[in-house]
Structure formats: structure tokens, C-alpha cells
Amino acid sequence: MQLPSQQVAVLEAANADEATSVDALAAATDLPPETVTGAVFELEDEGLVAVSERVDETVAPTDEGRDYVENGLPEVRLYEAALEAGADANPVSMGQVIGRSGLEGDAVDIALSNYARKGYGGIDSGEITADPDADPEADAEANALASLAEAGETPLDGVDADADTIDQLERRGLVDRRESTVREVTLTERAVTELMAGIETSETVGEVTPELLTSGEWEDVEFADYNVEADAERFDGGKVHILRQTAERVKDTLVGMGFQEMDGPHVDADFWINDCLFMPQDHPARTHWDRFALENPTHIEDLPEDLVDRVERAHKEGVGPDGEGYHSPWDEDFARALALRGHTTSLSTRYLSGEEIGDLEPPQRYFSVEKVYRNDTLDPTHLLEFFQIEGWVMAEDLSVRDLMGTFEEFYSQFGIEDIQFKPHYNPYTEPSFELFGTHPTTGELVEIGNSGIFREEMLEPLGVECDVMAWGLALERLLMLMYGFEDIRDIHGTLCDLELLRETEVTY
Amino acid sequence: MPTVDIDPDELRELTGSEEKGDDELKDDLFGLGLEFEGRTEDGAFELEFAPDRLDRLSVEGVARSLRYQYGDARGIHVPSPNSPDWTIEVDESVPDERPYVTGAVIRDVDLDDEALESLIQLQEKLHATMGRKRAKGAIGIHDLTMLKGRDALRASENASGDEPRASPATGGTPTIEYVGLEPEADRFVPLDSDAEMTPADVLEDHQTGQTYADLVSEYERYPAIYDDIGLFSFPPVINGRRTEVSTDSRDLFVEMTGTDQWTIDKMLNIVCYALSARGATIEEVTVEYPDHEIVRPDFSTKTKTVAHDRIETILGIGLDPEEVIDLAERSGLEAEREENDDGELVYEVTIPPYRVDVLHPLDVIDDLGRAYGFNDLEPRYPDVGTVGGRHERSRLEDAARNQLVGLGFEDLLNFHMISEEENYDRLDVSPGDGVYGAGEPATIKEPYSEDFTMLRTWVTPSLLMVLERNTHRAYPQNLAEIGFAADVDESENTGVAEGRRVGAVLAHHEAGYEDAKARLQALTRNFGVDLETPPTDHPTFISGRTAAVVIDGEEVGVIGEVHPKVLVEHDLEVPVSAFEFDLEALR
Predict the structure, then answer these.
(1) How far is A282 from chain B (nearest CA, A)?
(2) ipTM of predicted assembly, 2 dp
(3) pTM value surpassing 0.95
């Protein structure tokens, strides 16, 4: 019969009367163990060898264990220091002995906790005594460790120490106990017969090489089989961050629905963030505990003067013949103060005002998926900075039904159906709704956004003469709904866990 | 959002709907925008409310809204107050910062424990919302029988002096005085105390005084209210103990001071409506300012003109005028059909005096929609055609990100806020020392913690922090971020230059300059820009293995092997090479 060379080598190295381990075969054939294992399985399939498996326990010293072999066990060092200090005669203060021993940090605790246990002496009220009869040379743990350090990884039954000592060393983290599967091979009768009849080596090659191809030799060779089922070495390719992927999906959806993307400053004047939204200046959300005001720089240089006047008038007097403003003071200096934007509605006000890309004629749809900053409590579901999905539609005569229809369409793209609308209050929209959706897997009713039709007190100063409906929601909320993440800090920010990011499935 | 506690049994009693189960009540409350959050220890509903309908901050107000919702009440009810007996005289010494006062007398109130608790909660919730934590308006409620009115006013003698108050004249209407008082000029026993204190002592030593000290501590004179016996209230901080309200109180004096007359008048209306719902009689009070006189509470209604067409376009449905009028009445409003000058159908809608949220006709339309039931409206996709598209900046960012991922980088997303230590010190740079990345910081006035005191001026510090956090994870760790960074730049309108940076780190046993350079070359080649890397010095990197990133002739970044002192600082035991440059350079 013909067999590939590795299999022939294994057959020749194996024995019919005595089991030979794979490692022994590897040594005898000068082949890598994994190649021998592959050949053994092939031969087993052919009925040429019998394979038995057993689990071997081995022990080996850890790095800490090796360190102690070199420098001595901490308790032995402590004992020796105690002897030097005369603690065999009279108790000596612990600090003195420790200082003399040269032990530091964790090693001190380790020494103290093993000292009395092993009969080197006693520790009482901060003083150490040493037993003059104790013999460090006979320390079973030290001796077992030393012999292991010399022998390296040793089968458990080959260690010259009792089981308790090994257990103790393992508990102390000085040795590692490992289990390994040992395969042993015996030739079958058939193999013996075939070997006597003579087995030829078939020509196999491992790699396709340029020489093989150019010489034409490839036509006459057989390629060695690989274990194609085995796991290959791990490879971590690059991947777009999962939150970015989610953002991309949201952007794709919105672009598909006819929305244009906005862009603008993260540090902005309160004027654009709040005043243009008809947020009264004494609104609780504008106080320091909700917002990140800037210490340096403090104020924006230019604001469009006409717009400032119109916004101030809307705040003070309202808009329209029946309008009334807020009964609150309005201060331009406060409006000019810089802060990290608390919502991306600051982009909407910039765009709607015409300041960003010129005056807009209806109909228009705009969106952004950008960061906002809130001085909230940092916890598994809240970050100080997170992505807000902001969207608005500008057209003549928009109704709340249009608003509802737009949301139903948007959220259905993410598998969230049965949107419910809870009438709500926002200073800058009327009517306003909180949106609730049913979680696709848990069935829970969760808040997924906030929406409404912009008030005339907001739109008129901005120079918008038609209706604008708008909404906002947290991208992280959507991500957590879609993936079931429990702590957003694992994903977003410098506390992130690379393993989690690497293991997370892609989204599409 | 704020919450209000409502006892469901009281709610059933006040709405006259004893048969309603708890779940049914919760659904009805959700319809009003009051979301059930849980129960208090006493079994009351804890309801989350949006801060517009401040007339619903007590069980009486919620019950009123439910009665409208159930159809048990329609239109507007205005209590008829009795004419004034008492007067509040406002002295010229009153602090300029808090010049306004209002008040009412409440007679024959039946305050059992629940009613008193509800009144105290209403007072607290009004303080927290409309009163802006008492800064804009503060409420004091007193037992009227403990007050002794006087009718001759000698405020000028006493407002700022140390002399004992002159004895009262007799006869005329009973009067109390709102004055400005020097911080140590008089003493009284405040609530929750046994000792006589000056207002200054209260701010210093009394717990409530310390809480609200900031509101008045800058004032030259403190707000104070006197009756014939003496000082009995120190608004907006604390009342005196003498006039404390208990379940035995039958008649009450309600006073409110603030920075805006409208605000305190509306707060007063809400309190009066709540007490009136419990059967009390409201009695007016005259407020005599130095130059004019008003009578409060002001239960006058106001009207808004609402166009029929606007109602239909906002709700997206057709309605008969009768339906509109019905919806208004079910919202506690009254609507009268009219025609405007252009011959269009409009409604004169009357708004009751307890409403504080109706600023515009739109707010009326919202009420009509709620009465109709917004969730009964059929959603429709708007018939509006627009063309969608991405912003160029975000397209560029995505294209660069895709290239980085193709080059084997794990894309990261880090915080924009960082500490000075992480941004500068741990990378061995200082603000303004002229090297790439070390710009002047835009700093945050009141940071959440010392970890987030400024906006990062470059992204390399964030990437090193991630490496530091993940030393137990498998290497190689090749990480990249295209992220926001900002620094102070006076030439910008906001004073801050914001931009996106392309940052990358390679961390593994053989990471070196060439690794980083190879990838930077690939990236710039894909964008068709010219890359040069002349040697430079940068404290973060090893000297002689650091170059400026020069793209199309302009210096836009840095590339190099990270200096061992920076690696050790971040507990890293592998070499790291890195580059960072301005995304705009790829344009």
C-alpha cells in the first residue's frame, strides 16, 4: 500500500506491543506534534493504529513560585530575619524583623500569614518570636517547589511531595495544576501485516511554491491533507464602532426619507441653543446643574442683531395679536454665554434662521446625528455626552398626523412598531408628544423620543412662515434597544472594553 | 421630571367616581399626561408631570381635570370671592429686587390631615416650578386668627430702624405691612425653632434659612411682613412660628412675594382654586403699593382668538363648529363662534384664571387635541417631496473611517470631554507649548467631575487611555478614531476652533515608526494627497523617530514612536507608534 510520508514515519515509529504517546512519536519522527496527531487520526481511520486517550495532570511552578525558589519563601526569610534579630530568645517588634528581612508590599502579608501556620514561631501584639527548633531546610513547600523548578512541568504522580503540600502550594498560587490529554498509539495487526508486506511512501507536498508551478512538478505530486476543521489562530480585523454603525443606519434611513444632514458647532451661544427655541431664561434646564457652561472662552462674539431683537421681543411680548411672552427677565449677556450644546436643536435654529446656508423655502427636511452634552448623573444608561438624532420637516400646513406618520415610518425601519403618543409639554413645541414604542423582544413600553410642532414664538423670529415639525431621541437608547447592552460605558468612551467591541456583531 | 403624590381614594372622592379601580384611574391620568411612576409608602400614586399644567399639582386640580375628562364638568367655573376686608400695605422700603406681593384670605376651610398635606405639597411644588425655587415667587400661608391687623401705617419709622414699633391706631380695615428690613433690625421665632432670631441669624443658623440664604443675602434690606404684633414672615425664606397653620386652622391668610406680579398672582389663583374645591370661601385682599392699589386674587379670564382652519390643519382632521365648542368645554374652556374681519370662522376662547400655560392660540389647539384624543388620530405620511443627502463633512469622515478599518484599525468612539492631566500632563505636553495637539483648552465652568474639565485638544490621549484600560486584552491593538477635538482660537466667532482629527495607535511587540508610516502613506495615497514627513520634535514621541505630518505642503499633524515615559505612565509594556492629523487635510 501507499501512504503519505508522515503516516509511514508514524507507523514505523509506533509499536504493536506497547503504547507510544504522540509526543514520543513526534520526537522519534522529528515531526511537529500536530502533524503527528493528524497522521494518527488518518491511520486510525485506515484501521492501522488503535488510539487511546488519557488525561494527565501535571504541575508546574508559577512565576511567583520560581521567584521564591530563587529568593526563598517569604516566611522563611522572615524566620531567618527573626533569628538574626534574636527572636528565638525574646520577642522582637514586628517592624524590626520585617525591616531586616527586606520584605516589601504583599510579601509581608504572605510571610506573616504563613509564618505561624508552618511553626516558625508566633506573632502576638506586634511582636514576633522564633522557634529555635524550626528547620527551614526541611520546609516541605520550599523543597517541593525547588524540585519542581528544576524539573519544569511534571506529571502529578511524579512529584516528590505529598498531596497536601501540592494543594497548599496551589492555594498560594505558587504552582499551577494543568490537565492535558495524552494520546497513545498502538499498531493494529493489520498494520503489522502491511508493514511486513512493505508500505511505499506516496509523494506529498505541503505548500504550493513558485518552483512547483514553474517546473510543472505540480502535476506529479499529491498535496498533504490539512486538518481543515481545526480553528486557525485568532485574527482581529478592524471594524467600524458599533455605535457609529447604528448612526450610519439611522443616517441612511433618514436620507432615504428625504432628509438633508446638518452640521455645526458643539460649543455654541445659549442664544442658538435655547433662546431661539423660546426657552425662558429662567427655565430649570438652563441652570448650571443641567448645562455645561464654558469657563473659557465665555461669550460668542457676534450674533445677528435683528434676530436677537426679534427673539427678545418674542420672549417678552409673545407673537401674534393674542400672544403673550414669558413673565421672565431676558438678558442678552446670558444669551451670548457659551456652553456645550445640550441638544442639537441649536443646529436646527441655525439652519431655520437662514444664518447657516441661507433662507430656506418649504418644503425641507433636515437631520443630524451628533453629540450633545448634559450635566446628568453618569451611570449605566446615562452619559455626559451622547448622540442625539434630530430631525425636522418644514412645509405648509403640517399636522400632528403628519408627525405621527413620519415617526411610524422611521421607527418601523428599526423593528419598532405600535408607536404611542403621550401628550407632553416642551417650551418650544405645541402640540408636543413623548413617543413610546414596544421593545421587539422584551415587549416593554419604552420612551423613544420627544417631538412636536415648533411654536410660532420660535418660528416667527427666525423668519419661518410655515409649519415645522421636529423630534429628537438618543441614539444610545436605540442602540441599547437593538442590542440589549446593559452598560453603555462599555461601548462609548475611554472605559470601553476592546473585547466587547471585537465580539459585537455587525449591524445592517 | 418632577412628580406629584396623589392619594387615589381622595381623588375618587373629589371626582365623585368611587367606582373607578386603580388601573382605570392610572389610564385616565396617563391621558392627562400624568404618568404613574409607582406608589409612596402611604400608598399614594407617584405621578410624573410635565411642568405646564401647574394647576394639576394637587389632588384638587387633578380631580378638576378628570371631571372635565369624564364629562362631569364643562366650561369655566370661577369662584365668587367676598369683597376685601384685609389690606397689604407695601412700604417704600421694600427691597427693589423683590417688589411684588399678592394675597388672599381663605375662610371656613376644613383642613383634615390629607387636606393639609395636599396644601403643603401644592405649596412646595409651586415653589419648585413656577416659583423657580422661590426666587421668582414664594408662598406664605398663615393662620388668620393669629394675625392682628393694624390700620395706621408707620412703616417709615420702622422699616430700617431699631426703634420698637409704634402702637397701632384702632379702627379701619385690618392691615399687614410688606417692608424692607435691615438684616439685624428685628427678631421673631421662625418655624421649626424655639429661639427668637434676626433674619440674619436665620440665614446663618436655621436649616431652611441656609437653604434659601442665596436668594436674599445680597440684598441691602430683607423682605419682611409685619402685623400689629410684629414681624411674622421673612419671605422668601421662612414664616414665623406664631402664624403656623394646623388642622385646627379655619381661616387662612395667603401672601406671596416675588419678582413678577403676574407670576405670583397666578400661583395665588392655583392655591385659591384648590382650597375653593374643598369648600372654602375666598375673600379678596387689597394690595396698596406706594403709587397704586390692586385687589387680589384676580379671577378675571382672558380670551384667545383661534381660527377654525388652524385647528383643522394642526389636527389634520375636519371638525364641525359644534364639535370644536364641545371639545373646548370638555377641556374646561369656553368657545364662542365668531367671524373675523376676513370673514373666516374663528372662536373666542375663554381661558380660566388658574391656567398659566396658555401663551398663544396654539396652546388652545393642543387642549382641543387632547380632549379629542391624539391617539385616536390616524397617522399619515406627509405628502411632501424633498431630496435627502449627507453633509460633506460627514461623508469625508466616513470615507476616511472606512479606509482606516480596511487598514486593520479598530474604530473607536471616545468622550470629547477630558481632564487637563490626561490631555497634557500624561503625554508630557503643556498647553500652548506649540507642538501639535497641545492647543489652549476650552474649559468647563462647573464640570461633572475632575475627569471632565475641558474639551480634548487632540484624540491621541483618548486612544492611549483605551490602551491603558485594555492591557489584559489580546494584542495587537491597532486603534483609530476620527473624532472631535477643539481648542481656544480668538479668530473664531465662538472663540473655539472645532475640528475632526484622524488619530491612530499601533500597539504590539513589533510596533514601530515604519508600521505607522506605512498606514499613513496608504491612507493619504487613497485620498490623492501628497504626504511628507520631515523630522520634528514632540515631547510625546521619541526624539529622532518623530516627524511632522505635512499634507499638500501644510503641516497638519504628527507621527512617531510614543516615548517610553509616556508608555510607562500608561502602564503599557509594548511599544506604540501613532499618528494624528487634521481630517480636513484629506479634502
Answers:
(1) 7
(2) 0.89
(3) no
